[in-house]
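Page 42, continued from yesterday. The earlier attempt failed because a stray header line got pasted into the input along with the sequence. Redoing it now with the clean sequence only.
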Amino acid sequence: MTMDTLVELLKRADACEKDLPPLLPVQELPRALEIAAWIDHTLLKPEATAVQVRSLCEEARQHRFAAVCVNPSYVPLAVGLLAGSKVAVCTVVGFPLGACLPSYKTFEALACLEAGAVEIDMVLNIGALKGQAYGQVLNEILMLAQVVHNQRALLKVIFETSLLTQREKIMACLLSQAAGADFVKTSTGFSTGGATVADVELMRRMVGSGMGVKASGGVRTYSEALGMIRAGATRIGTSAGIRILQEAQL
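This time it went through. Structure tokens are written below.
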């Protein structure tokens, strides 16, 4: 990306800080168990075992969740267990800090894609974003987008919104959009806070209708999930998918 591109993005950020883009019309909300198709059934705890991942995948197949999201070492297992189903295998890159070298993130993403993952959730370089090293952030996302899209997979960019100012969230959206990412995502679930309705609404305003928005971190109930979808989320990352479906039937 050229310096002119960054200058244009900064101008857009200035304008958006003064006057946010308009809200999009509220999308049609899923009814009851339809919400399963919006959920990434997630298990990213460092102590997660193969037995737990097997259970996660069995639940995802049974309830037809959109995807399972597992740590990279469990991608081959999840791919094998979900073969023949419509459940996608998602994994995380640069997780949870986002502070490793871009070449490491690229290598990790490629290894996961070769193992069968079809969705990559990368953590952007939070320190670089906060230090206004926008070219560095943009180029890293561009690198990952190229690798991921070459494999016909999806790229989601995790912001860790609880650590960011309003201006930084706006810039993260603009940089992710300019780099060609498919989704913007609120949180890892491992920092000081998770998804909020206000952050999801801001992200949807900034990326418009052309990108997905994933609300992740602390979404544990059916009503919370619906609130995120009402605010503009098109995917919910949660470890409470079964509880959400149980509440949806009440």
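Notes: DSSP finds ten helices and eight strands in the chain.
Reminder to self: strip header lines before submitting.
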